[in-house]
Specification:
The complex is a heterodimer of chains A (110) and B (112).
Chain A lengths: L3 E2 L5 E4 L4 E7 L6 E7 L6 E6 L3 E5 L2 E6 L4 E6 L8 E8 L5 E3 L3 E6 L1
Parallel strand pairs in A: 2-11
Antiparallel strand pairs in A: 1-3, 3-8, 4-5, 4-9, 6-7, 7-8, 9-10, 9-11
Chain B lengths: L3 E4 L2 E4 L5 E7 L5 E7 L5 E9 L2 E4 L6 E3 L9 E3 L8 E8 L7 E2 L3 E5 L1
Parallel strand pairs in B: 2-11
Antiparallel strand pairs in B: 1-3, 3-8, 4-5, 4-9, 5-6, 7-8, 9-10, 9-11
Classes of the chains: A mainly beta (110), B mainly beta (112).
């Protein structure tokens, strides 16, 4: 079992729709959870961080964390073609290691 | 401006040669990290350092070496023992344990 798992996609949504990206992790003592966006050929950029159960909203983005189910998700409302990218879920345990999932490719079609 | 600088952006080497990738940060971050990314893959952790003069192996440390003599610098050496060195290498830093990582622009290494 991989430490952090994501569906590689591609996930295709029409412009204006809600995109839902999911991630599961195996280490129960994980403390910090992050979503990064990576455009082709570029380095990852931080979109959201979440540390406690529940929802965290920032503009069009909402991160959801459920530690009991070891599940973290990212919702993107009103998806735009510029949101087309690979979204990386990352999980940090208490050792300081940040482990990434393989990423989900999102395609937003105009 | 504060940030993380990786150099060079592109690097070409012949098989059997060691090569060192530079990573410098002026964010005053304690922790620094090296990741490798292959096409269509996520990031895999090579080494990380949470304090000067100390570092830990990540998941794929074989064939790589690092040093952390200064807080600002965390160079990565890709040795000839690394079987498949061609990849996109990313350096990152963070302020404290649990804080998000900030990435440099990456170095694309091609070994032929």
């Amino acid at each position: 079992q991989k430490e952090v798992e994501q569906n590689s996609g591609p996930l295709s949504v029409p412009e204006g729709a809600i995109a839902s990206l999911n991630c599961t992790y195996s280490d129960r003592v994980s403390q910090s959870f992050f979503w990064y966006r990576q455009y082709s050929g570029k380095s990852p950029e931080l979109i959201m961080s979440i540390y406690s159960n529940g929802d965290k909203e920032d503009g069009r983005f909402t991160a959801q964390l459920n530690k009991a189910s070891q599940y973290v998700s990212l919702l993107i409302r009103d998806s735009q073609p510029s949101d087309s990218a690979t979204y990386l879920c990352a999980v940090m345990g208490n050792t300081g290691k940040l482990i990434f999932g393989q990423g989900t490719t999102l395609q937003v079609k105009p | 401006d504060g940030g993380i600088t990786q150099s060079p952006k592109y690097l070409f080497r012949k098989e059997g040669q060691n090569v060192t990738l530079s990573c410098e940060q002026n964010l005053n971050h304690d922790a620094m990290y090296w990741y490798r990314q292959d096409p269509g893959q996520g990031l895999r952790l090579i080494y990380y350092s949470q304090i000067v003069n100390d570092f830990q192996k990540g998941d794929i440390a074989e064939g790589y070496s690092v040093s952390r003599e200064k807080k600002e610098s965390f160079p990565l050496t890709v040795t000839s023992a690394q079987k498949n060195p061609t990849a996109f290498y990313l350096c990152a830093s963070s302020s404290t344990g649990g804080s998000p990582l900030h990435f440099g622009n990456g170095t694309r290494l091609t070994v032929t």
